[in-house]
Amino acid sequence: xxxxxxxxxxxxxxxxxxxxxxxxxxxxxxxxxxxxxxxxxxxxxxxxxxxxxxxxxxxxxxxxxxxxxxxxxxxxxxxxxxxxxxxxxxxxxxxxxxxxxxxxxxxxxxxxxxxxxxxxxxxxxxxxxxxxxxxxxxxxxxxxxxxxxxxxxxxxxxxxxxxxxxxxxxxxxxxxxxxxxxxxxxxxxxxxxxxxxxxxxxxxxxxxxxxxxxxxxxxxxxxxxxxxxxxxxxxxxxxxxxxxxxxxxxxxxxxxxxxxxxxxxxxxxxxxxxxxxxxxxxxxxxxxxxxxxxxxxxxxxxxxxxxxxxxxxxxxxxxxxxxxxxxxxxxxxxxxxxxxxxxxxxxxxxxxxxxxxxxxxxxxxxxxxxxxxxxxxxxxxxxxxxxxxxxxxxxxxxxxxxxxxxxxxxxxxxxxxxx
Length: 419
Prior knowledge:
Oligomer: single chain
Order of helices and strands: HHHHHHHHHHHHHH
CATH class of the largest domain: Mainly Alpha
Number of strands: 0
């Protein structure tokens, strides 16, 4: 008997309104990456003008990360209770205010206040915006449009790095220009998001819940349901998946240059060249993930990505810490992470939770991940000093664990929504 296959819709068949929602909501990922990269670069450029010590820079970076985590926890819950549009409009107003303060900051207290506002608003915006994309995407396109947000995230990294090349020699003015870039994008997104209607799926779910329809299923909007039998498994699994895999990704982002210069004995410029090459490869991999995530072969790509990411962590162990092994580490991780890392977490976060619990769950797992990264960052330099092999062995185990978790458990979980 011949088995009929259901054709997967092509991206060129996607209606323009769905693209519009995906772009405007997905810009949360662009602004997330742009703010993080800009903060790191601008603080260095502000160093002399504001008399910043290395301790100040570290504290401000940690503050941005911590407020992002808190913002995700709070914003995700508010998005489920009061709607996607209301939250992501408010957060964009706050982001514009915060980036304006950082671009025009006359003093250190204003710099601190701006960092607090930007970190909180970016964190609060992200889970709500991802839920909006999933809920407004037509059937057959949901995974790809969520994955598109990761393409925007990669584009922001590239754009910010290029801008930094041009303004890096301007000192304080260069830092202000970098923050002005984020401010202009935030204002543009705010203006365009004002024309978006509320998520239709959230509106219907909220109306049914308020009317008492659907019984216990709709009671999933209560946060206590997140810790009940139905959702505690997916909730804990996704928190571990994202949090543990992010340890490897975060190590490359925060300590890659340190490993190149202090352990491999090469220059910052060489590290920059490798980072650029890795960014190009990661961008191409993110586009490929976007094209394959809605196909039946999704988990085949996931396993392939996990194997490549594990192989990347092994390179410095097998060949010693040098320029070539570190380059192989970053490039293999960039390819593998596109299919078995944060992108996959974003997709699963939309599929495994019902409408009125979706951004709450994603916000909570984001909170756990960012806080875990902040704690790990305190100990990573000590691991590097004690011997990089210990660090990379730890990362190998971490990525192997998340790949096994995704394949053996998460992929078997029933979808709660997005039928």
